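Page 37, top half.
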Amino acid sequence: MCGIAGWLDWERDLTRESGTVRRMADTLALRGPDDSGVWTATRIGLGHRRLAVIDPELGRQPMTERGGDDGRELAVVSFSGEIHNYRELRTELTTRGHRFRTASDTEVLLAAHREWGPKAIERFAGMFAYALWDIAEQTLYLGRDPLGVKPLYYAEHPSGLVFGSEPKALFASGLIRPEVDAEGLVDVFTVAAKRPGDAVYRGVRQLRPGHLLTVRRGATTARRYWQLTTAPHEDDEATTVATVRSLLDRIVGEQTVADVPLGALLSGGIDSSAITAIGAAALAADDRGPLATYSVDFAGSEDDFRADALHVSRDAPYVRAVVDHVGTKHSEVLVEPASLLAESGVTLRARDYPGVGDLDVSLYLLFREVRRHLTVALSGEGADDAFGGYPWFASEAERPSGSFPWSAGVKDRNAVLSPELRGHLDLHERLDARYREALDEVPYLDGESGVDRRMREVYYLQHTRFLPFLLDRKDRMSMANGLEVRVPFCDHRLVEYVWNVPWRLKRLGGSEKGLLRAAVEDALPAEVVHRPKSGFPVGQSPEYLESVRTAVSDMIESDGPAMRLLDAGTLRAMVRDQAWVNGTFTPPPILPRALQLDDWLTAYDVRVVL
């Protein structure tokens, strides 16, 4: 994985702007610490920061394709991510007469574009974002993987557009400035309700997952090349279980390909444990084992842990069970509570906007330690979304909430907003509107009704709203450390199949993710197969909670920029709430986010436009 950036301009000569393009790319240096490159022509400049994973010696970028008798340049690409089926595509392209000078998937992408044109993207399985400039056509193609694992932002300006892996690259062009309007503030004050394509900042867009953007002089068009397609599921139970396992074996096998050290993230839950077991088997088959695994916990969690609906048990005993059963080389990363607030600014700058407090920081610190030993790590992210792992799946089947399930219990969203902001923004109204918009997109099955219809909606909301929130967090925290994290459960071939499996089969045996558990039960110890869903560890240390309390109190008294948007009385009441200060609960999520909001408005010089 890498960082890409670029500038298209139909009026300015960009051969004179290589310094600007390099500056844009260099904002992404953490994503690509191994190499950098810039390619410019009259109308376009492409920048690249490389994390070398496949063919480290010859896979440098931006990469050009040459052809014809004179060896002229035909196309150039700046590519981030991995095409996991590139070996299969390379074989097919070789039979069609293409010759390769590297072993990289980037060169396969260029050859595929030459062979199949813009439709080549439909053949890619993987996680990727790319900018390809077709020199003969004078056309720019921006492409993003089906599930949106890799980010790609862009913003139009009067004579073209700028783009990059993160918003900071766009701002470095000098053509776009950080501004946020009411719709962007909805994304700041809520979780996982962002419309596909929205990007918090005014005038900045994300290329939607499964889309290809084509930019020609005078015309910009977006084509959706992949989407969830609804059809009756005709496989019986045994076939369904076997198909899921077969897909996982194939996908994980593809994703263990790397020319650098590779390992896995392990929590002791069914998702990461399944990937660990299958990945370890794939490495062993190639005589590349044992698999290195990493888990995270908080120092003092034995005393501080308190179970709740999303965190039912500590990970450590289950991690040990998997390590002993599979035979991995394991390391535990311990997070010190004092670092949670201290590193908050680092994670803010990784995201480019406020995140989710200690959940970001602990993940960032895990990835930082993993990167000292590995370049690539496999993750179980996405299994809950495909197979139904969160508590709200079962509750929605019994009592539909009529809202985004993960936030249906929030009572007064507007209480934290300042009186002035409330005059411009009603979070309840905005979220209700977004929820209705999302339901209008759902591809229902003809004749589907009742529980099956509602669960179709919930899974759609999960894939298009909640999962992007998780993938964005994973990408930013990992790439801020130069670590590539692969997500086999987000391979579109698996997602396509499981999408049409009925709710009763996904909940096989009456348990959440029952289908997944059945598919991998032969590879794992029984206690792990039957362990209920337990979320990513959260900071429950009284010291951390007290530090948040003090920091928020200081922010209120100093009347920082965030206080123009926040209600001081509501924040003071949250700070005084001894339930969370004493460690009985984690702090209300708004408190760490409020601190980052204050930092963000200052550090990015954000202009609020209402």
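Page 37, bottom half:
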Amino acid sequence: MRINHLLKYFKRDPKHQRRVIITEVIPVLFMRLEALQRIYEHNGVVKIDHMFSREEINSLRLEYDSLIETRETSEIYRDEPLVVLWTHVVGAQKKTCRLSELPGFKSLIYKKIAPFIASFLDANKKVELLQLLEVIVFNKPPQKSNVLNWHQDVAYFPVKPNNQVAVWFPLSDVNSEMGPMVYAHGSHKLGIKGSTNLHTREVFEGEDRELIPDNPQDIGLEVQEYPLTQEQMLIHDGYTWHYSKPNRSENSQRMGVSVRFLTETVVFDPRPGQGAAFTKQIDVKPGDKIESPCFPIVWKRS
């Protein structure tokens, strides 16, 4: 909740407004943040209200639309962060671009999202750094997109230790009909699971870890979907199970952005089915630190 939203509840003379902020508004903001942190710790996911303005998200949408109109390449870049442009239709080819080709996205990640995540997670001094790992812009076209099956992010990345945090936010409002994100609350406490094909759930060759069940409710987990407006953002733990439904709307594009961060120094630890694009971006051997302009450190505890 923003300060100006809280101030409307207090009828004071302007000369008393400083006292209102210090004695009444700031404590409420701290309590609100602490409540959100408790939800995140318990569920492995939390929704943040009033994170963005519609104007700044609409400007990102225009920037994306301008780029994707003529984009054909799937090149893997080795000199800066990569953005994956992923249409959720079986058989569709992922496209790519450099993060610098989407300057509005880059500015939002560096100047707004990363500082917020750092302050949100570092309250208990559990986070060493934020290292940008992946940026994806998803598009689920109406009537022909598919389910993206249950998975957890950490299962797909060849790093150790494997602690991550991700944010997800829409480029347009996403209601229940359009295929919102769905999470299994508390699943982040159940350890790492096996990686599968996200479209078919086919197990990757050599994968020997226990798989996420078809229905997490069968093992007692609460499953909840998260419709979002352009002003909202989700934060989820890298171990939290999630999936998304097809876009069953008549003509609405369901578009969202995922930004993933590592939260501590990691080394390369390859396994079957992990990090295809990741391993093409950097020359590393097992046990090497992940240090590359492709994966910049955007915040570090001083």
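Margin note: The first strand starts at residue 45 and ends at 48.
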